[in-house]
Amino acid sequence: MKNKGFPVHGYFGVAVIVAAEALLFRGNQLVGHWFTPIVWTGYILLVDALVYKLKRRSLLANDRLEFLVVAIISIASWWLFEFYNAPRFWNSNLELWWHYQNLEPNLWVRRIGYDWAFATITPALLETADLFRATVFKRERKASPIRLGRFFFFVTILIGAAGVVIPLVSPNEWFAPIVWLSFILLLDPINAMRGSESIAGDLARGDFRRLLSLLAGGFVCGFLWEFWNYWALSKWTYTVPYFGNIKIFEMPVLGYLGFPPFAVECWVIYIFGRSLLQPNKRTQGSEILLRPS
């Protein structure tokens, strides 16, 4: 998987991306319908290899079991968001914000495609954030600490809980921004009070590197999601009530503002889920997952 230079799996990732693009534009139907999980698997392999080359540590090179945990939590997280997108999907075809097109007709095969694609979401975000952490935001630049007290945490948790519940009780296409922010407000203070890694804990130390890395990683992945999705045969489109006709690829332009906080949200959910699975576990593969040194 790795060598003294660029790891082998990075070359494989490049080959997967190039082959997928070539076959897609040659009209290959199989690749066209499975393009999203294929190309994102290649992307993860490539970015993980870049992280390893820079740091001599990465999830796939040094902590593959933890990578598997990240992928499993990623699947669970996105099924949660699917529930928000289609809150009555058990007896209705209602979809509020995004809509899938040209899907595999066999439900069992389609489920494989769903889970494979969903398994790439959080790993792609965290690997990209780790790449930013190892490059652009590598140097420690201490800022003034922002200490948030327990009262602030409790208020934030209540606001986050309300934001988590309201879109389910009263589904509305205007509530998309609430879903992409509420779990941060709900879970990050809980992570901090449980002694887990948290954005609040980073701010209390005056360290913004992880937050900035996650925001940057979310923006990059968001752009690539929409870029690759635009050409795929099986794809998603959006219904957005604000400036929905002004688009870059299939995404209304204002929607790109949601990708940076979405990366933070996925990380916060990962930390919360990981603390429930195995308290006090600290992976050694990624500085995005543990306290920056």
Describe this protein's structure.
The chain has one domain (63-277). The chain is 62% helix and 4% strand. The longest helix has 23 residues, at 209-231. By secondary structure, the chain is mostly helical. Helix 5 (64-85) crosses helix 6, helix 5 (64-85) crosses helix 12 and helix 8 runs antiparallel to helix 9 (176-193). Strand 3 and strand 4 (251-252) form a beta hairpin. A two-stranded antiparallel sheet has the order 1-2. The chain has a two-stranded antiparallel sheet with strand order 3-4. The chain has twelve helices and four strands, in the order αααααβααααααβββα. The mean pLDDT is 89. The radius of gyration is 19 Å and the shape is globular. It has helices spanning 8-25, 29-33, 35-55, 59-62, 64-85, 107-119, 121-134, 150-169, 176-193, 199-204, 209-231, 259-277; strands at 98-101, 235-238, 247-248, 251-252.
